[in-house]
Design goal:
alpha+beta, two-stranded antiparallel sheet, 5-stranded antiparallel beta sheet, about 350 residues
């Protein structure tokens, strides 16, 4: 991390800067596979996101009032208090849990103290560096609730579309899907995809040349981090066991995450539970009595065909009907436990096929 920078730049460097080197990224001084931050934001629980939006709403109103040259002291005080509530709410929620909170808490307490707010209010008409720091830091906090909400709404559909079975889970496959998902209209002036809000530096590191990207806003950081991940073949994928997104880092078709499976009394991971479900499904496929009955009927039809007691055409129609009845029985347990066996009698199949 950089040293000897003022508080404003240090806040930006801590909260809105990502370093990229190969397939790795560094955020808040910690190294992760590229796309980790974007994946974490996808997983933020809706109830927490809603709480953040509610807490940042007074900040948005205060910023709007400033834009129209009004200083609402009540909104200012509520906004100041809500900054600390947002920080406390997100301390244990990735990716915000990666932050160095001992330093951040100390600085935020200084920037958003009651005395600092009063001083900033007195200087609003003639802003100086102190006043600008208060306002810019508040603007940064104000955008957070909207940023998370907008990011999830806009990009979860793209992420889920990357799981198309016909799509290869690599940079080339993701690029093709990206091109289908976004059109020229999405890049029109004022649209979400048209906003870059990023500056880039290049630094030498032990592992090679590092690209340091400073973002002007949380929306641009979240979105760009996802796209940087797609560029190197990383992508979030939804686990069917727990419903959370996890990051795939190669083209292998990984279905389940390594997190603990919810409500599993044995403390197994989703991957362990998924492996067991897969084995049970395969065992069921082999031993399913509905499928066994269908196979027995088709074998009997083939025997009658071999003996010459039915025609080839009639045999094929009977076998097609048997498979249709089997598929219906698999989908409908009432049918399977009721009329299925009656419909699978050879005389019934022959009569139905002869119509």
């Amino acid at each position: 991390m950089a040293v000897l920078v003022d508080i404003k730049e240090r806040l930006k460097l801590t909260l809105l800067t990502l370093d990229y080197c190969g397939k790795q990224e560094v955020y808040a001084g910690q190294e992760f596979p590229t796309g980790t931050v974007a994946c974490d934001v996808l997983n933020m629980p809706r109830e927490i996101v809603n709480q953040v939006v509610a807490l940042t709403d007074p900040m948005m109103k205060f910023v709007d009032a400033l834009y129209h040259d009004r200083v609402d002291l009540l909104l200012m005080e509520q906004s100041r208090k809500n900054v600390f509530a947002v920080v406390e709410l997100l301390k244990n929620v990735p990716p915000f849990s990666y932050q160095e909170y001992e330093w951040l808490d100390q600085k935020l307490a200084s920037i958003f103290s009651p005395e600092a707010a009063k001083k900033a209010a007195r200087q609003m008409k003639k802003p100086n560096d102190f006043c600008n720091l208060f306002v810019q830091s508040l603007c940064l906090a104000a955008q957070l609730g909207f940023a998370i909400q907008r990011y999830q709404q806009a990009l979860i559909p793209l992420v889920e579309s990357l799981d198309d079975t016909e799509l290869t889970r690599d940079a080339e496959g993701y690029a093709k899907q990206f091109a289908k998902f976004f059109t020229a209209d999405d890049y029109a002036e004022g649209k979400w995809m048209s906003l870059a809000n990023v500056s880039v530096q290049y630094l030498a590191s032990e592992t090679g040349l590092t690209r340091r990207m400073h973002y002007a806003s949380f929306p641009s950081m979240f979105r760009a981090n996802l796209f940087e991940a797609l560029c190197v073949g990383h992508a979030p994928k939804k686990c069917p066991i727990c419903g959370n997104f996890f990051l795939t880092t190669n083209a292998r078709q990984q279905k389940y995450c390594n997190g603990l499976a919810p409500e599993d009394t044995f403390g197994r991971t989703c991957r362990q539970v998924g492996a067991r479900l897969g084995r049970e499904a395969r065992e069921l496929a082999a031993d399913d009595p509905r499928k066994i009955k269908c196979k027995q009927v088709i074998d009997a039809i083939d025997q009658r065909l071999h003996r010459g007691t039915i025609s080839q055409e009639l045999a094929e129609r009977m076998k097609e009907l048997a498979r249709n009845h089997r598929d219906r029985a698999i989908m409908d347990s009432n049918y399977a436990n009721g009329k299925y066996l009656e419909d699978m009698e050879l005389t019934a199949l022959e009569a139905e096929a002869s119509k």
